[in-house]
Specification:
Radius of gyration: 21 Å
Order of helices and strands: HHEEEHEEHHHHEEEEHHHHH
Distance between the termini: 64 Å
Number of helices: 12
Organism: Imbroritus primus
Protein name: Aminoglycoside phosphotransferase
CATH architecture of the largest domain: Alpha-Beta Complex
Length: about 350
């Protein structure tokens, strides 16, 4: 009772599960958190006597903050494409509850190592290509200029302003605006496909059949073809040396082209697009991680910022068109400018 007083949503969720009756018989005493999330969504695991589903996942998505309908819609699209996604077994959109098939609790992040990575990433590549090949215009929102810009705006607002406590001067704002425009032009010029938007080691599950299980896809859009590849191999939660990253990206590029995706014939051009897309994503992620800490009290994400900043700096310092961003980061962080090379 005390738990329910402090968490009325949990009391509602328990009542809803009980209302499902004999079709989905669950043991309410087994209800326990299944994973954390960077949004207002929560996930619980519960045991069941259903012959096909010994455990089930329950999504709690408060309607005032979240909408379950995109999750259901994208699950159908990605499932039809041949990806392994959690089946929606029961729903209550008014209350914001979904009952889902359980894809287990073994994330890619928990099992990725030097020995397992090739096989796991090969499976993730196959699933990604299947999803991208299934793209149909008009089925998902576009990853358009406005959305790309809103994401980039998170960096000056939350990372620079809130996290560093710095106000950009007019020259710095102009510099950042020029970098953003170059990135957006590049991103929009790429082939447009289904984009998961968080296709990384925390949202991919190692499964016995149909590996990987794909989660957290409710924000999917139609956008740049390199985006999910960047999410996968320039992951904010695990890093690899660049030589190995490039090998995996080459394998994806070859497989995707062979499957019929309209990728550039020159890998060097594709890799440049990959890196520029990554810079857009990592500037966004720095802003999101800062917001999660300073607004939402989720301070654990600060531990992942150094890796994201290393990705950001590496690309900013590699291309002459982006060097102004590296100098801006030096100024913001009070670092001396270092000699670098461009190409």
């Amino acid at each position: 009772m005390q738990e329910q007083l402090h968490d009325p949503r949990l009391a509602q969720l328990r009542s809803w599960l009980q209302s499902l009756g004999p079709q989905w018989p669950v043991d309410l005493s087994s209800l326990a958190p299944a994973s954390s999330d960077a949004s207002f969504r929560r996930y619980f695991r519960v045991t069941s006597t259903h012959p096909d589903h010994p455990t089930l996942i329950v999504m709690d998505a408060p309607p005032s903050h979240e909408d379950c309908r995109p999750f259901i819609h994208v699950a159908r699209l990605f499932g039809a494409a041949g990806a392994t996604v959690p089946t929606v077994l029961a729903e209550d959109l008014a209350q914001g509850f979904l009952l889902l098939a359980d894809l287990g609790n073994t994330t890619y992040l928990s099992v990725l190592d030097a020995d397992s990575a090739d096989a796991l990433y090969a499976d993730a590549t196959d699933a990604l290509v299947r999803i991208q090949l299934a793209t149909r215009a008009g089925t998902l929102p576009p990853y358009d200029r406005a959305l790309l810009q809103r994401e980039l705006d998170l960096f000056p607002e939350w990372y620079v302003g809130k996290h560093l406590g710095v106000t950009l001067d007019d020259t710095q704002r102009t510099t950042l605006a020029g970098i953003n425009e170059a990135l957006i032009r590049n991103n929009l010029a790429q082939p447009q496909v289904y984009v998961h938007r968080d296709y990384h080691s925390r949202n991919l599950m190692r499964t016995e059949a149909g590996n990987p299980g794909v989660l957290d896809f409710q924000d999917a859009v139609i956008g740049p073809v390199t985006y999910d590849a960047v999410s996968l191999w320039r992951d904010a939660y695990i890093s690899w040396d660049e030589e190995r990253q490039i090998d995996w990206v080459v394998r994806y590029w070859e497989k995707a082209r062979k499957a019929g995706l309209p990728l550039t014939a020159d890998f060097g051009d594709f890799y440049r697009d990959f890196e520029w897309m990554g810079l857009q994503r990592h500037l966004k992620v720095l802003g999101i991680f800062a917001r999660l800490s300073h607004r939402d009290g989720k301070h654990g994400y600060l531990d992942d910022m150094p890796l994201v900043m290393r990705y950001t700096r590496a690309v900013a310092e590699r291309y002459s068109e982006l060097r102004a961003l590296a100098r801006l980061l030096d100024a913001l962080e009070g670092r001396a400018q270092a000699v670098g090379y461009t190409f």
